[in-house]
Amino acid sequence: MKVGPVLRALPTLFRVGFAEAVAYRAEMLVWILATTMPLVMLALWTAVARQAPIGPFGEKDFIAYFLATLIVRQLTGSWASWQLTFEIKNGVLAARLLRPLPAVLSYAVDNLSALPMRFLVSVPVAIAGLVSVGRSMLPSTAWGWVYFALAVWGGWLITFLVNIAIGTLSFFMESSNKVMDVWMAAFMVFSGYLIPVELFPSGLRKVADFLPFRYQIGLPVEIFTSRHAQDDALSLLARQWLWVVLLALLVHLLWRRGLRRFAAYGG
Q1: Would you state the pLDDT for residue 19?
Q2: pLDDT tens digit string along 68-126?
Q3: Which of 160, 146, 222 is nearest to 191 (CA)?
């Protein structure tokens, strides 16, 4: 792969991807609304915490946590698994393979191109809510913001790579959507999306610490709401990026084998 042509093609592909997101803004709005579960959990947990704190979380802590979760969910979401599954089964992937950049990178561009639309709709509301709760809950140091940026980027990469890995299974089976459904169910439980990982029983929390789900959502949210000291945050970031490396290797392996199968069947 030549880097020069890829770099020249990226701006055009981002413009095309953004234009598609705007053209299909109704579908995009439905996707955004479908990821607003943190607002439901915010109402539930703050109602409970209004009577008494739950562990280290008081009412304001829950508000900050779930508004941050809304932001992170919008910034790290991916639908590449469903997209890839559809294109494999309908043969559309063959046309994507003719583009001037690797197909996996083109899926990444498609997903990242929709970020401005998601950001425009949901993130300003959440940020305004966070500021109203109290700026003391946001990172107060430069390293806090740098770690948050790294955590969000790592969270997006884990989500995207998992989507590609599961979508690639459609090279070998009728459809990988059921596998994605199982992944999403585990994600809801272990990621911190519905309940902060800090409130898990100690044994379950240790399990969550070694699974990738927490590093998709929970870790960026925890850093954004200043729930970790610098050393702890750095240790957790190291675990997150280890998952990124492992998943990238898995995607490389599945993609190469899957493409050979795709070509063998005349895809």
Answers
A1: 52
A2: 898 898 888 888 898 899 888 888 888 888 877 788 888 888 888 777 766 666 667 66
A3: 222
Contact predicate 110/11, CB 8 Å: no
Residue 221, pLDDT > 70, answer yes
Cα–Cα dist 23/26, whole Å: 8
CB 216 within 8 A of CB 163: no
Q: Are 72 and 192 in contact (CB under 8 A)?
A: no
Q: Name beta bridge partners: 57.
A: 54
Measured distance CA(87)–CA(201) in Å, rounded: 42
- Whether 26 has a pLDDT exceeding 50, the answer reads no
Q: Is 54 left (phi over 0), alpha (psi -120 to 50) or beta?
A: beta
DSSP string, 43-71: HHHHHHHTTS-BTTB-HHHHHHHHHHHHH
Q: Which residue has the higher pLDDT, 174 or 248?
A: 248
Look-up of token digits 């498609």: 110
Task: Please spell the DSSP secondary structure of 57-117, one letter per residue.
Answer: B-HHHHHHHHHHHHHHHHHH---HHHHHHHHHHHTTHHHHTTSSS-HHHHHHHHHHHTHHH
| Residues 186, 41, 218, 103, CA torsion sign | positive
Percentage of the chain modeled with pLDDT above 90: 39
- Complete DSSP assignment for 150-178: HHHHHHHHHHHHHHHHHHHGGGTSS-SHH
The amino acid occupying position 134 is G
| Residue 187 CB neighbours (<10 A) | 21
Rounded mean pLDDT of 3-25? 53
